[in-house]
Write a sequence for this structure.
C-alpha cells in the first residue's frame, strides 16, 4: 500500500518534471536568422524544483489531504434560506426588490462598474444557457462558444451588410444559433458522454477557424468593427445621429450628451435579456420537457421503455441552450462594437463550463453567483492576470474535492398533487 | 372470440456463439394473463428485451395487434401499447411519485414550448388530465397518499407497485412484467396477485408475466410457456404444465 503510494508519487513528480522542463526549462529563441536553444535561469529551476517537490508530497500524502478536505465544514447555503412556505410568499417581493435594485444601481456607481456588470450579465446568460445543456440535460458540451460566435457574427454581419437593427437581429441570432445547435446535435447526440465532448470541442474550433479564414465575408482575423449599437425605439445613443431621419436620445430628451447614457442603456438591455432568460428557464424546468431532461439524466432505459424519444429530448436541450448563447452573442457584438474570432476561443467555452460546474450543475442561482465570481474576481486581481488560468484550475480542483455538487446544488421545483 | 394481441414466431437471439433464445413462439390473446417460466439464465428477460425493442432479434417475427414490430425503436413500440417493467426496479428515484407518473405521460402532454411558456388553456387542460390519470392509477395501486414523496424513499414493495402504475398510466394494451414478485413478502405478493387479475378483468388489458413464484403463476395464468436454455420446453394451462414430465424433470433437475 505504502510502496504503491510512493511509486505513484514518484511517477507524478517525474511527469511534472518532464513537462516543466519542456515548457519552462528550455526556450527556443531567434538569434538573427538562427534558432538558439536557451536553458532556464537558476531562479526558474528553483521554482521547477519546488513545484516537483510539491507534486511529490501531495501525491504521497493524498489520503491525509483528502481527509482534511472531508473534515472541512460544508456550508449549507440552502439551509440559510427561510423555509419553503415562507419563501413562497417572500419570493415575489424579493424578485421585485432585486429588479428595482438592478435598475437603480447603475445611476449611482461609476461607468467602469456598470460596464463590468454588463459583462457579468453576458456571462450569466451564457452560463444559464450552458446550464440547460450540461446541468439539466446532462450533455457535456465543450464547444458552447461556437453558438455564441454564431449569434455575435449573425448580428455583426446583418448589421454591416443589410443595416438591420439590433432588435430585429436579436431573434434572428438566437434562431440561427439554435439551427446550428440542431444541425450539430442531430447526428452527435447519439454519442456517449466523452465522444460528445470531443465532437463539440471540435465544432467550437471549426467555427472559429471558419470565421478566421472566410475572409471575404467575415473579414478574417481583423474582425468586424463599427457594429451599430442598439437603439431605444429608434433613438440613438451617439453624440450625433447617424441615420438620415434618426434622432439621438439626448436631443429627444432635451438633455446634454453624456457617454454614460449609452453604458447604462446597454446595461439595462442586458438586465432585460437576463430576466427573459431566467424566466424562460424557470418555466422550462416546470414544464414536461424539464421533467423529461431530469428523467433522462436519472434513467435513460426507463425513459425509453415509457415511450420517451431520447434523441428529440436531448436535441431540445441542445437547441435551447444554443439559442441562449446566440442571444448573448448578438448582445455581445452590439456592446463591444467590434468582434473577431479571437473573442471565441476555447478558453471561453472553458470559462462558461467552469461557471456551470462552480455554480452547481442545474441550479440557476448557483450559476448566477458563479458567473459573478468568475468575472469579478479576475478584475479585482488584475495584478495576477497572468495566473488567471492557473487560478481557475486551482479553483476547479478545490471545488471538485470540497464541494463537487457546486455552490448551490440543484433542486428542481417539484410539482405537487393537491388532494 | 378473443383476438390474438401478440403473436411471436421463431424468435431467436444470438450473442456471438451463445444462443440465448432459440425459436420461441408466444401467443397472447386479448384480456389474458400469460406467463413465461424457466430457470435462471433461460433467456426470459432476453425475450422481453426483444419484444420491447431493446434488442434487435436475430430471427423471428413479432406481430402486435396484427402489425409487425420489427424495425420499430423501443420508444415507438411502447407508444403502440406494449410496455414493460424491469427485473430490477427502475424508477426516477430522485423525483416524486407523481412526477414519475407525469414523465410516463410525456407524449400525452402539450410539449409545445410556447404553450408551456405562456400556460395556454390547452397546456393546462392536458396537464390537469395527466394529473387526474396519475391520481387515478396511484389510487388503484394504493399509493395516492405518497404522491408527493420522493420515489426512492418508498418501501420496496411500493416501488414495485409504482412501477406498474407508471406503465399503466401510458394506457398500454399489453403489459410485460419481469419478475414483479421478486423480493416481496407473502402479503405483498398476494396484493400483486390481486392487482394483476384486476388489470385483466377490470381494465381489460393483457399481461405477459415472467415469474419464479409458482404459486402466483399457477394461480392467475391463463396460459404458461416454459423455456429452458433458451428453447421452448412446453406450454399449456397451469394444470397441463404441473403434470408435464419434461417440466418436472427440468425443475427437479435444477433443484
Ligand atoms: N447483452 C447480452 N450479451 C451477452 N449475453 C447476454 C446478454 N443478455 C443476456 N445474455 C445471456 O443470455 C442468457 C439469458 O439471460 P436472461 O435472458 O437474462 O435469462 P433469464 O431472464 O431467464 O434469467 C444468459 O446466459 C445471459 O448471460
Ligand atoms: Mg431475467
Amino acid at each position: 500500500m505504502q510502496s504503491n503510494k510512493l511509486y505513484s508519487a514518484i511517477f507524478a513528480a517525474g511527469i511534472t518534471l518532464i513537462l516543466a522542463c519542456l515548457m519552462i526549462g528550455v526556450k527556443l529563441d531567434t538569434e538573427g536568422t538562427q534558432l538558439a536553444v536557451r536553458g532556464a535561469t537558476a531562479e526558474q529551476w528553483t521554482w521547477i524544483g519546488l513545484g516537483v517537490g510539491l507534486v511529490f508530497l501531495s501525491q504521497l500524502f493524498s489520503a491525509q489531504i483528502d481527509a482534511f478536505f472531508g473534515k472541512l465544514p460544508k456550508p449549507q447555503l440552502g439551509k440559510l434560506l427561510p423555509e419553503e412556505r415562507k419563501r413562497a410568499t417572500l419570493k415575489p417581493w424579493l424578485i421585485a426588490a432585486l429588479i428595482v435594485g438592478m435598475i437603480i444601481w447603475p445611476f449611482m456607481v461609476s461607468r467602469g462598474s456598470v460596464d463590468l456588470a454588463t459583462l457579468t450579465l453576458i456571462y450569466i446568460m451564457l452560463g444559464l444557457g450552458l446550464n440547460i445543456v450540461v446541468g439539466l440535460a446532462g450533455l457535456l458540451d465543450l464547444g458552447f462558444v461556437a453558438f455564441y460566435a454564431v449569434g455575435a457574427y449573425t448580428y455583426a454581419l446583418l448589421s454591416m451588410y443589410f443595416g438591420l437593427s439590433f432588435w430585429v437581429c436579436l431573434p434572428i441570432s438566437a434562431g440561427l444559433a439554435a439551427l446550428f445547435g440542431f444541425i450539430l446535435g442531430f447526428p452527435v447526440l447519439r454519442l456517449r458522454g466523452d465522444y460528445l465532448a470531443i465532437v463539440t470541442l471540435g465544432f467550437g474550433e471549426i467555427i472559429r477557424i471558419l470565421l478566421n479564414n472566410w475572409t471575404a465575408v467575415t473579414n478574417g482575423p481583423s474582425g468586424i468593427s463599427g457594429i451599430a449599437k442598439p437603439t431605444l425605439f429608434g433613438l440613438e445613443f451617439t453624440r450625433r445621429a447617424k441615420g438620415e431621419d434618426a434622432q439621438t436620445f439626448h436631443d429627444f430628451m432635451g438633455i446634454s450628451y453624456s457617454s454614460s447614457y449609452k453604458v447604462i442603456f446597454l446595461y439595462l438591455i442586458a438586465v432585460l435579456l437576463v430576466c427573459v432568460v431566467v424566466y424562460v428557464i424557470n418555466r422550462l424546468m416546470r414544464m414536461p420537457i424539464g421533467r423529461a431532461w431530469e428523467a433522462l439524466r436519472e434513467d435513460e432505459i426507463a425513459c425509453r421503455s415509457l415511450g420517451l424519444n431520447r434523441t428529440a429530448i436531448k436535441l431540445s436541450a441542445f437547441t435551447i441552450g444554443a439559442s441562449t448563447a446566440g442571444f448573448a452573442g448578438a448582445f455581445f457584438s452590439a456592446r463591444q462594437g467590434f468582434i473577431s474570432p479571437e473573442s471565441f476561443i476555447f478558453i471561453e467555452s472553458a470559462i462558461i463550463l467552469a461557471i456551470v460546474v462552480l455554480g452547481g450543475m442545474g441550479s440557476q442561482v448557483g450559476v448566477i453567483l458563479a458567473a459573478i465570481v468568475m468575472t469579478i474576481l479576475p478584475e479585482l486581481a488584475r495584478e495576477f492576470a497572468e495566473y488567471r488560468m492557473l487560478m481557475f484550475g486551482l479553483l476547479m480542483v478545490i471545488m471538485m474535492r470540497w464541494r463537487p455538487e457546486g455552490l448551490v446544488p440543484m433542486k428542481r421545483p417539484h410539482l405537487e398533487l393537491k388532494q | 372470440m378473443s383476438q390474438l394481441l401478440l403473436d411471436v414466431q421463431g424468435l431467436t437471439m444470438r450473442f456471438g456463439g451463445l444462443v440465448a433464445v432459440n425459436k420461441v413462439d408466444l401467443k397472447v390473446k386479448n384480456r389474458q394473463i400469460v406467463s413465461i417460466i424457466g430457470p435462471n439464465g433461460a433467456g426470459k428477460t432476453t425475450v422481453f428485451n426483444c419484444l420491447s425493442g431493446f434488442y434487435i432479434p436475430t430471427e423471428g417475427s413479432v406481430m402486435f395487434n396484427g402489425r409487425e414490430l420489427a424495425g420499430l425503436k423501443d420508444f415507438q413500440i411502447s407508444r403502440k401499447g406494449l410496455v414493460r417493467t424491469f427485473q430490477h426496479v427502475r424508477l426516477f428515484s430522485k423525483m416524486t411519485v407523481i412526477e414519475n407518473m407525469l414523465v410516463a405521460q410525456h407524449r400525452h402532454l402539450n410539449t409545445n414550448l410556447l404553450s408551456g411558456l405562456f400556460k395556454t388553456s390547452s397546456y393546462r387542460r392536458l396537464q390537469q388530465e395527466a394529473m387526474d390519470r396519475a391520481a387515478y392509477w396511484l389510487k388503484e395501486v394504493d399509493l395516492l397518499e405518497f404522491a408527493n414523496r420522493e420515489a426512492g424513499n418508498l418501501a420496496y414493495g411500493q416501488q414495485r407497485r409504482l412501477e406498474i402504475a407508471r406503465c399503466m398510466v401510458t394506457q398500454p394494451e399489453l403489459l410485460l412484467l419481469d419478475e414483479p414478485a421478486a423480493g416481496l413478502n407473502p402479503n405483498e405478493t398476494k396484493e400483486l396477485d390481486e392487482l394483476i387479475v384486476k388489470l385483466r378483468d377490470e381494465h381489460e388489458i393483457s399481461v405477459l408475466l415472467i415469474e419464479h413464484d409458482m404459486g402466483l403463476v399457477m394461480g392467475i395464468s391463463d396460459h404458461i410457456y416454459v423455456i429452458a436454455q433458451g428453447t421452448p420446453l412446453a406450454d399449456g394451462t397451469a394444470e397441463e404444465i404441473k403434470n408435464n414430465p419434461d417440466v418436472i424433470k427440468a425443475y427437479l433437475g435444477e433443484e
About this structure: Chain A touches chain B at residues 280, 283-284, 287-289, 291-292, 294-295, 298-299, 301-310, 316, 320, 414-417, 419 (CB under 8 Å). Chain A has a mean pLDDT of 83.
